[in-house]
Here is the input.
Amino acid sequence: MNALNLQGVGHAYLGRTVLDGIDLAVATGEIVALVGPSGCGKSTLSHIAADLIEARAGRVLRGYRRHTMIFQEPALLPWATAEDNIAFSLKLAGVPRRQRAARIADTAARVALLPEDLRKFPVELSGGMKQRVAIARALAVHPDFIYFDEPFTALDVALRRRMQDLVIDTCAGGQLSGLFITHDLQEAARLADRIAVLDSHGKGVLGIRPLPSAPAERTDATNFDWVQSALASDPLFRHIHDVDERQIT
Amino acid sequence: MTTRRHGTLLPRLADRIGRVLEFLWSGWAGLAAMCLLAAVWQAGHEAYGPFILTSPVETLQAAAALASDPRAWALALTTLQRAVTGFALAALLGGGLGIVAGYSPATMRLASPLVTVILGVPPIAWIVLAMIWFGGSDATVRTVILIAALPVVFLGAARGILTRDRGLDRMAQAFGAGPLRRFLSVGLRQTTTTLFPGLALALGTSFKVAVMAELLANAGGIGGALADARTNLDIANALAWVIVSVGLLIAVEYTLIYPVKGELDRWRRAAQPWGIRR
Ligand SMILES: Nc1ncnc2c1ncn2[C@@H]1O[C@H](COP(=O)(O)OP(=O)(O)O)[C@@H](O)[C@H]1O
Ligand SMILES: [Mg+2]
Here is the structure.
């Protein structure tokens, strides 16, 4: 059974159709990157898949046990310290109180947060540290599916690479599946198993391309070559850097 | 929200003690302001004589006399009880309605004209009505307080819900929080930013309105004592009662409102460079 199966999903905001006839499957243990220009409905699709909003049409089948989500902005509770923010997801997942401290320490170490950072409030943390807390919050509950909604867009290049590496390492065990939304093809080529391209008007998935090797085995050189040849010769990727004309009109 | 462990207990305690010390230090500024007020008061006293304005010292003596009089304590406690219960009613009702209105636009559209009407009616009219309904009882005073303090609490709560960060709601939902959990852990906490100024304002209003309603409805308490002082043209006593009611308000504010606010605003202080760092 697939971890996630979207069948003919459609959605409309206030009568304006933003998604129509989306079919997409994520196999267990697989990361599927969803790329498309800004405003084409990627976030909306992930919100439908994660049951945050209800689809107007189609079916969503979830074969995973527990999902979490990492958003573009950290979305931390400003009144809670970093560790209490991580504890928030643990509490919602029903992790017993006595186990939480150990879980927080483990996860914080994985995202390279220091113990003294854990006692700080979000206002005292840099943008990158905030996003790392958000990632720790998503990882702490040991989900088997993660929705990534352009999580690293706001980070600088070096930090983005480190966070991508973290995702690659985390997923390398094969326990985790995910839908990774991005508009950066380079990023998609780095950490996904397959890349799906969403139509720039949300009218279906235009196509899906598998990547030649497992993410952990790829190098920067192979990724770069893949992206270059994809952009040059694959018509599927022709429009992914377009801007959304609907938002301008 | 808090995961209390031994590791965090000590810094939290230090933070709290720091806050108290900071507060005591700010007391010096308050003392200076009081001295200034006393000086102006003394000047007024010397210009107009004791029948118009008694001197600060005499007034303080009158207040000290009240402090050693058990009957005066009973009067002050009556007013305190009425003000605090009236405030609690307004806080619960106004806060509850405001939160509902914040979540439900239909309720908000219905409630905001009503709030405008309530705000438009002069408090004195409510006192007259309440006197007719309840006579000179606790209920009269509480009703007037409720009506006078309700709008600010309502608006504070509703604004807090309306201006909440929806991203946090979405985040909580994505992590599996149902509507009730989202409200309790994310929504309610965010309203405090606007609800607390409203509550502080409502508390002040409660005391002022309590004394006024007591005076006009002849319902005893500090207002009743003020009415007696007026009949006897006893300026020192009247001013002493004013001092008592201001003192009560300050005492309640610093035992009820500020500790809670300090606790809720710990993260805001953390952003300030002079905040005590852990
Ligand atoms: N809550 C909303 N109400 C109305 N329109 C929305 C809402 N959220 C998104 N949209 C619109 O739906 C379209 C898709 O948005 P989104 O899913 O955020 O795109 P993406 O994540 O690909 O940038 C955009 O045109 C956007 O303006
Ligand atoms: Mg988006």
In short: The CA atoms of residues 13 and 19 of chain B lie 10 Å apart. The radius of gyration of chain B is 22 Å. Residues 1-53 of chain B form one domain. Chain B has a mean pLDDT of 88.
